[in-house]
Amino acid sequence: MRGIINRFSGKYFFLSNFAFCDVAYEGAIYKTVEHAFQASKSLDTNTRKLFLQADTPADAKRLGRQVKLRSDWESVKLDIMKELLRQKFNQEPFRTFLVGTGNAELVEGNYWNDTYWGVCNGIGENHLGKLLMEIRQEINKSIDILN
Q1: Is the pLDDT of residue 1 over 60?
Q2: By CB atoms within 10 Å of each CB, which of 8, 125, 131, 135 scores lowest?
């Protein structure tokens, strides 16, 4: 597949951090990448437990906006996201689905003005899309080595 995937919804919802897929972060298992990522914003164990109880990724995201950010947040958030995404996309069927995107450019297009992780109205850094493409490349290299 060539071209661009510019929304992580519909048949590409599996690319979204809101897709249910258990991931571990520092000894706890979270329902989605979003739950784990939002929990990682705090170093406080009790605060992190709140994210384990959040029913939906949207609930976790809302809760994440209310926590006091850890002091090193800006310097660690990309690495944390990358590790969580690696976990998700090392699981089936997510691994196969990601590989199935071929060499399409992955852009987390959104309407909620997230210009760090995605692109809104043509503006954004698209860090989520870039990480997904990097992980896809890692998986493809590992497949090539096995073949």
Answers
A1: no
A2: 125
Collapsed DSSP state (helix, strand, coil) of residue 136 = helix
Domains of the chain: 4-146 (1.10.357.40)
Distances (CA, A) of 74 to 11, 60, 71: 32, 19, 8
- The token pair at 85 is 């995404």
Residue 63 above 90 pLDDT?
Answer: yes
Strand ranges inside 17-85, DSSP E: 23-25, 28-30
Distance between start and end Cα atoms, the chain: 21
**What is the pTM (predicted TM-score) of this model?**
0.94
Amino acid at 74: E
Nearest Cα neighbor of 108 from 25, 43, 16 is: 16
What is the b/e burial string over 75-112, where b = at least 16 CB atoms within 10 angstroms of the residue's CB?
A: eebeebbbbbbebbbeeeebbebbeebeebebbbbbee
Q: Please state, in angstroms and rounded to a whole number, the distance separating the CA atoms of residues 94 and 16.
A: 11
18 Cβ contact list (under 8 Å, min separation 6): 32, 34, 56, 57, 58
